[in-house]
Design brief:
Number of helices: 30
Shape: globular
Helix content: 55-70%
Strand content: 5-15%
Length: 703
């Protein structure tokens, strides 16, 4: 019931956003109004509860008042636009390319979210998929701690007394639904699917608006979400796999080995490449570090596990459409909407804000240079000056809204060091520079140059800013983890997919071109059926070479979680996902939620899948270095002292427990596996919960 109420809460924000979009974009057709409406609703859903939380804490009242404000915006927009805003009609025939392209991608993403965001196993444990075994644990900790502790601005529950500088709105949006009473799983999935729909629509309509062709939008969208390089060759060069296809039971072998239907998730014995694809840990055509494959799939490795990227893209792609329309479509007033949208980005996804800033700066410099041209007549110069004034207004609005976020959170944390350094060749460690990109991006990269050369001047200019992003990412690292430059590089990749798609479509048209005034006989002679079939096969093979790596990666990602699969010829539900929290620790988490204070602090191991931090929202003395190091925070002393408190408690426990405000001590499999625990000392404390080999002790005495 509470999950349903959360769904209705999100739906009301979306409806209010749509009402606002109808008022702001009255001439756009329905699907564009829908996109901008979803975007506006998402911005309100991200920001209104947070703005109120700065005043009154992250409480239920803040969420309800935020809903009231959103509804007020929707009603006011409807009243003000009455009689002048016309919602564009929707035609299935007209929107068929969009529906046939976007709906399957949305379904794929939603299915992966469903079987990757903590599924409940029959033994009481929690499972995830391959790509969410890491980062999701951190995000769940942020979601629960923001909701449970209600402290705002939020602090790290995995490093208490340290302000959270990470772009936390991608998690606070789920904290809203958790506060409303939905389950943690539903609170995680609901806004993610909302953002997913917005991203997919945003990408498609961005390409459609840019190139004015359904075919270019279809191909560009497929390339961005499914496109990949030549990594699939690593899974078709194995003699055993190829030989199996010549046997009488070839298709059975292919299903069982290549699709991994009967393969265990964790095989200890040597496997062939086909079996490795569906059971190996990050051995996919788009993410195979041993072979230098680092250009990951945008769904499986960016949107599903990286929530900041998911929500950032939900704002970025509509913003890119507004930017293009404002600059090249002479819709200068859209700069005002763009400024607000850009200003909302830093605490959602700083990389998206930075990318939009680079693209915008490139275009304004180009506009300034063009304004100096002597070839412009008086009317063009007047229009150019008007455009520059609106461009400046866009910058003022964006900077005014973004500055408090950047100086209050982002820069404060990044100043710790390691966030900005020179480094050439991104994360390539095994290949020459050119070959690295050829094999990682395949035909998309190879066609990039002819696509750029063949593009119109306006397209080249709009694409030029993305080349600046690419160049910067090849020489500068913007965060401690070099690999994370891909959060910027994917903006260049998206725009590259666009110009390559347009090039493919234009090339097809040229190959099939027949003079308009040609007779039926001449048309048939000019383009015989055999040639058409040959072109179709050629272009089909080209597209397949660009999509097969991504499709194989998504297939692997699906079977890495609990899923429906064919076993012995029957469709069955298989619980073969990765266990992220054991049944014992799930029970411990339930006890903690029911019996401890929201701000209680636990001494636990520093494992990344820490059940206390993930599921209860309580503090732990120190969390996983894999999270904290890449956030640029100083965790070294706490990390070292956790080990001391477990292994040398007689010498330091009392002092350090007081220093860090430790209320409880957890002893379980992770603690015994990570430290030489002095069990004699802890047996002197008061046990307040025990199940199997897991015990929780109260530091202050009986609870």
């Amino acid at each position: 019931m509470l999950n349903l109420l959360s769904f209705l809460y999100a739906a009301l924000f979306a409806v209010s956003g749509f009402s606002l979009a109808r008022a702001l974009f009255p001439r756009d057709r329905f699907v564009k109004q829908l996109l901008f409406g979803l975007t506006a609703g998402l911005v309100m859903l991200l920001w209104l509860p947070v703005l109120l939380a700065f005043i009154m804490g992250f409480c239920l009242a803040a969420q309800l008042i935020a809903l009231g404000l959103a509804l007020g915006v929707g009603v006011l927009s409807a009243v003000l636009s009455k009689g002048r805003a016309a919602t564009g009609s929707f035609s299935f025939k007209t929107e068929r390319p969009l529906l046939l392209t976007c709906l399957p991608i949305i379904v794929i993403g939603a299915v992966l979210m469903s079987n990757h965001y903590i599924t409940n196993a029959s033994d009481g444990s929690l499972h995830v998929g391959q790509c969410t075994y890491g980062d999701l644990c951190m995000h769940l900790g942020f979601i629960t701690s923001i909701s449970v502790q209600k402290t705002f601005p939020p602090m790290y529950s995995i490093l208490p007394d340290t302000a959270l500088g990470y772009p936390f709105l991608c998690d606070s949006i789920s904290s809203t639904f958790f506060t409303l009473g939905s389950t943690l799983r539903f609170a995680t999935i609901l806004p993610s699917i909302y953002a997913l729909i917005t991203v997919v629509l945003g990408v498609y309509l961005f390409f459609e608006d840019w190139f004015r062709r359904d075919s270019a939008a279809v191909i560009g969208t497929l390339l961005f979400f499914l496109g990949g390089g030549f990594g699939f060759f690593y899974f078709f060069d194995n003699a055993k796999t190829l030989a199996s296809l010549t046997t009488p039971d070839a298709w059975s072998n292919w299903l069982n080995e290549t699709l991994g239907i009967s393969a265990s998730v964790q095989n200890a014995h040597p496997v062939d490449m086909g079996e490795m694809l569906m059971s190996g840990w990050y051995k996919t055509p788009t993410n195979f570090v041993d072979n230098g494959m680092r250009w990951v799939n945008s769904i499986a490795d960016m949107m599903i596990p990286q929530r900041a990227t998911l929500f950032g893209w939900a704002l970025l792609f509509p913003a890119l459409q507004l930017l293009r329309r404002a600059v090249f479509g002479r819709e200068e007033k859209l700069f005002i909407c763009l400024g607000v949208l850009a200003g909302a980005m830093p605490l959602v996804h700083t990389h998206s804000f930075f990318a939009l800033g680079i693209l915008s700066a490139f275009l304004i410099v180009a506009r300034l240079i063009g304004q100096c041209s002597s070839k412009l007549d008086a009317e063009e110069k007047k229009a150019g000056r008007r455009g520059l004034r609106y461009f400046l207004l866009f910058g003022v609005i964006a900077v005014a809204l973004a500055a408090p976020q950047l100086f209050g959170f982002t820069f404060r944390q990044s100043s710790a060091g390691g966030f900005l350094k020179l480094h050439f060749n991104w994360c390539n460690e095994s290949d020459s520079w050119l070959w690295f990109y050829i094999k990682n991006l395949g035909m998309i990269f190879i066609l990039m140059v002819p696509a750029f050369l063949a593009a119109k001047k306006e397209t080249k200019l709009f694409y030029g800013g993305s080349l600046v992003i690419w160049a910067l990412c090849e020489f500068v690292v913007f965060q401690p983890n070099t690999y994370d430059n891909n959060k910027l590089l994917f903006v260049w990749f998206a725009m590259t997919c666009g110009i390559v798609a347009e090039f493919i479509v234009n090339l097809w048209d040229k190959l099939l071109a027949v003079p308009v005034n040609a007779s039926a006989k001449d048309r048939k002679a000019a383009l015989p059926l055999g040639r058409r079939l040959a072109y179709a096969v050629l272009f089909g093979a080209l597209l397949a070479s660009m999509l097969i790596s991504g499709v194989m990666t998504l297939a692997r990602e699906y079977v890495s979680g609990d899923h429906l699969g064919v076993v012995d010829g029957r469709l069955r539900y298989r619980e073969n996902g990765y266990q992220v929290v054991s049944a014992e620790l799930c029970d411990a988490a339930e006890w903690i939620k029911a019996n401890t204070e929201p701000d209680a602090t636990f001494l636990t191991a520093t494992n990344h899948n820490n059940a206390v931090a993930m599921l209860t929202g309580r503090n732990i003395v120190c969390g996983a270095p894999t999270f904290l190091y890449f956030h640029g925070v100083n965790y070294g002393e706490r990390y070292h002292n956790v080990e001391r408190m477990y292994e040398e408690p007689n010498a330091c426990f009392t002092e350090l427990a007081e220093k860090y405000g430790v209320d409880y001590v957890l002893l379980g499999s992770w603690e015994y596996g990570s430290y030489s625990v002095d069990t004699g000392f802890f047996s002197g404390l008061v046990p307040v919960w025990q199940e199997g080999g897991t015990v929780i002790y109260s530091v202050g005495g009986a609870d």
